[in-house]
Each structure stands twice: as structure tokens, then as C-alpha cells.
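User: Hey, quick favor. My workstation is busy. Could you predict this chain's structure for me?
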Amino acid sequence: MTKRFKKSDKVIIKPKEEFAYGYIIKALAGGLYPNKFHVVREYIQNAFDAIVSWKETRKDKNVGIKIIIKKPSIFIFDNGIGMDRYTLNEYKKVGFSKKVMGESAGFRGIGKLAGISVAKKLIVVTSPCGTPEKYTLIFDAESMLKDIDELKKKRENIPLNNLIKKHTSLTSDVEKKEEHYTMVELHEIKSDSKIIFDKKKLIDYISKNTPVPFSPQFKYGDVIENDIKRFVNDFVNDYDCVEISVDGKNVYKPFVQNLKPPQHILVWSSRNKKKLSAFCWYCENDKKGQIKPNEINGLIYRYKNFAVGDNYLTRKTIWDASAHLSFYFMGEIYITESEVVPTSQRDDFEQSVARDRFYKDANQTIANELNRIARESSGVRRAEEYVQKGVEVISSIDKDIKEKEPSLKDLSVQKIAELVNVIDNIKKRKKNIPEGDKKTKLLANKVIRRAKGLLKQVEDVEKTEREEFNIVKKLKLDEQAKRVYFTTIRTFKDCFVDRPEELEKIIKAFHKNLINIFSKKTE
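Assistant: No problem, here it is.
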């Protein structure tokens, strides 16, 4: 039965209870985006989602994102699906988003207001296809922040709803029915954020962090993209690229030359062997050591084709040994595990059991495999280097033999040691030369044979020199006696340079007399 109120009954109306206040905007404008380029990325992210939505429903694929620097403002334009009046009005709702986590690049409802951290006003103009209207939302960040500061001085707070209503406006105007676009204007960039006017740095940031395509000049670009589509889209269907230009210049992912052909690694979940957690492509350096420049070597995480962190994040999270070897490669790791989600700043992934499990799985597959490849390649390069070094050493000694007479006696101890090292080093590393590289294997064997031949030729010279050092050790000569001894030996060699047999006899006689003298001295 419905209760009926009498005229004498008192009705108590409770005031509306507020749970969020204006200082949230102050916090959003202050510390959420210390890297000012992240703000531009947030709007590229929204534009990307709009373009993906357009592609899903229309045959026209001629869409893209244009960034225009026109001081004191920056404009981000896309001809994606556009927004109706109701959707644009939701821009005013902080933390509100209808996007589903795992389906869209952005889903928190915070990034859409990122502009208030770098600009005095945020202006959004949009038109959805099929509607002969365009809508303009103005978010007056400067006056809003001043309002907050003035109230703080009075120890007063303003409810967030009231603050946003007071400092925003939404208007409409006529537009062509077939038009579809969204243009974000970061109006009057603040003095502490003018770094985003630096076109070179802005292009560099966009090329490394957003879903731009591979450069037409990158010879492996098409192969890599086909592999990504084949594996990533088969499981999650969320890989896509978008054309992005800055002041009319198209932006592409960075690359380097001198790379070996691309390879890929599939990371399967240890919890479910049929579930793909990530797809990794990589190219190994075709030269020695780490890829240069350092800014684009290593592996980069990608989520919805947006970068997460930099090349050091993969080193820190999935390499537990020999992390420097990761820079012998360049590549990307596309996350397909829906429970592994990037942080709002996209500098890491949110702490979770799924994230920790993925890091462990990636360590056992990606890190271990690339470490093995790097060490194997290093072994091959070292073997090839030692073979080439052997060729140079033998050529040098051959030249000395031809130019000097008597040649073999003039070979220094250092060169003899070099021959020994040539033989030892090639023998140790010959097994690292690939089976298919018959040319290098034949050369290695030839160098060893030639080095052994030279050593055999100087065997008598070596024997004499060993005897000289052995007698010094046997007689325990002090430093002064050593100097006298070696001076005498050098004198003998100079005097008998053309009579090697007589030299050998006189040195033997000299050694015998020394032994007799020192033996009597100790008796």
C-alpha cells in the first residue's frame, strides 16, 4: 500500500552530495603528463580509434591524421567517424568513456582532456557523417584554473560539475552532410610546453610511439607487416596503421640499414598453450656489436600498435642476464594478452598477475632465444676475424722473410708468438664457422697450415732463444748479471750473423762455461 503524506507532515530535502571537486582539474593539468609530447599522443590515440571505427563501417579507407603547427596553437585533425552532439558533450565528463578495455587504444576517459595541461583552451570541432551539422566544444582551461586558485585562497572548493559547466560551451553550426571529421585545437600553448612546437622532436616522437606505417625505404617493411597481420590479427584483430603527417610531411617508423632479414617469435601463455600472449619480430645487426643509433635499437612493446615504454623497458622486464645483447637487434613485441594493460602514461604495464606471467613467458622465449642468437653470431664473427687476422700476420711475416737476409733469425719473439696465437685462436673458433661457409673454412685450414710451416722453419731459432731464457732461470741471475748476459749474447749474434753454425757452437760453449763457474761458486 502506498503511504500518503498529510499536509502537516514535514518533508526534509537533503542537499545534493558532491563527491568530486574542481581541484581534480588542477591535478590533471599539472602532473599527469610530464612529457609534453604525451599530450599529442593522447589525441592521436583518440583519432586512431575514430579512424578504425570508420574503416570498420565504410569502404572508404582514404583516412588519416594531420597535425598542423600554427603558433600559438597546434591542431590535430582526423577524418574518422566523427562525433554527434551527445558524444561530444561527454568530453566534459572526466574519467568517462564508453570504449571497452582491450578493444580500443584509449579507454580511460582521461586523455581527452590532456590538452588543458599544455594549452590555455581546448577546442574540439567535429561532424559525424550523415548529419548536416558540426559541433564545437570549448574548454576554457585558463579561466578554470584561475577560478580554482582564487577559491583556494578563500579556502573554498567548487564541485567539479559546476566548474566544468561554468567554463565550457557547446555550440552547433551547419556542415555538409557527407563530411566526417574531428579537429582538436590546443589553443595558445603555455610557455612551459612550447617544446611541442619543435617539429623535429615532434616527428621523432610520433615516429617511435604511434601506429604509423613502416617507411617505403625500409626493405623489410612489407614482410614484417604481413607477418604481424597474419599472427596478431588472427588472434585479436587489433593491428592497424594510420597515415600521420606533420605540416604536410608523412611520418614513418624509424629504421636502420645493414640488418639481417626479419624473424619472428610467438609467445604462448604458460597458463593456456593455445593462447597467444605476444608476437615479436626482430632483425639482427648485420655488422659487429650493437645497432646504432642507440635510440632505435632493442625491442619496443606495442599495444594496439602504440608504443609502451622505450627500448630499455624490455631490457628491464624480460632480460635477467646479458641484457646488453638485446641491442644487437631491433624489433617490436605486440601484446595480444587482453589482461596485460598499459599504464595511463604508457611507460609500463599495470601491475597484475597476467603481466608478471607474461614477463616470465617472454623471458623464456624472446630473451633466451635472442641471447643465443647473439652469442652464436658473435662466435661466427670472432672466427672470421681471427682467420682474417691470421692472413694478415702470415702476409706480414712472409714479407719480412723476402726482404731480410738471413730472414728467419730476424723474426722477433713477438711475431713468433703471433703465429702461435693465430693457430690457437683459429683452432678454437673454427667450429663456429657455419657449415655452408666453405670458403672461410678452407681459408682457416690454409692459414693454420701456413702458420705451422713458418713455425717449423724457425724451430731452431726458437730452441736457441728458449735455451737463452732457460739458462738465466737455471743460474738465477740477478738483474745486473742478466744485462751482462744478454749483452754478450747480442754481441755474439751480431758478430756471427752470417755463420749460424759457429754461432750455435759458441753459445753452447758459453753456456757450458757459465754453468761450470756458477756450480763452483755454490760449492
